[in-house]
Amino acid sequence: MIDLKPLRIDGKFYRAVSVELPKTSLLAIASDKSYIMCGALDVGLLNSRLADRGIIAGKATGVRTLEELLNAPLAEVTLEAEKYGIRPGMIGREALLKMP
After folding, report:
1. DSSP alpha helices (H): ranges in 1-91?
2. Three-state DSSP class for 29?
3. What is the residue range of 32's domain?
4. What CATH number corresponds to the domain at position 33?
5. Contacts for 19-27: CB closer than 8 Å, 24+ residues apart
6. CA-to-CA distance for 64 and 82, rounded, in angstroms?
7. Are 56 and 99 contacting, i.e. CB atoms less than 8 angstroms apart?
8. 51-100 confidence digits (pLDDT tens)
9. Which of 17, 51, 92, 98 is most buried, most CB within 10 Å of its CB?
10. 25/8 Cα distance (integer angstroms)
11. Based on the structure, what is the number of domains in the chain?
12. What is the value of pTM for the model shown?
């Protein structure tokens, strides 16, 4: 099952996506230019092979719901996200508000 819903945080709008897969779920919350995602996100790949795309993203591990993703500390962020003051350890909700 795929669930897509709008999400509002401090007046900013995002798209929240949950994809149920066998034995796991993929979770992401995105603006038009950036996103946070569950542990399936390969930050190393984004920073190396896809660096030319300038992807602004962060990854939280061990999350099972969109609410957990919003409240979990980010384990990794892309180099492009760091340019916006987003750092590992920052809560997902805080990171989203800093992202363009």
Report:
1. 43-47, 66-71, 79-82
2. strand
3. 2-98
4. 3.30.1980.10
5. 25/64, 27/63, 27/64, 27/65, 27/66, 27/69
6. 25
7. yes
8. 999 999 999 999 999 999 999 999 999 999 999 999 999 999 999 999 99
9. 92
10. 22
11. 1
12. 0.95
